Amino acid sequence: MSVEAKLSNLNSIFQTLEKTVVAFSGGVDSTFLLAAAVRSLGAEQVLAVTAVSATLTDDEKADALELGKQIGVEHVLLETDEFGDEAFTTNSADRCYHCKKIRFSALVDWAAERGWPWVVEGSNLDDDRDYRPGSRAVAELDAVRSPLKEAGLTKAEIREISKQWNLPTWEKLSMACLATRIEYNLPITPARLIQIEEAEKFIRSLCSGQLRVRHHGASARIEVEPDWIAKLAEPVTAQKITEKLKSIGFDHVALDLSGYKMGSMNQGLE
Question: Helix (H) and strand (E) counts for the chain?
Answer without folding.
Answer: 11, 8
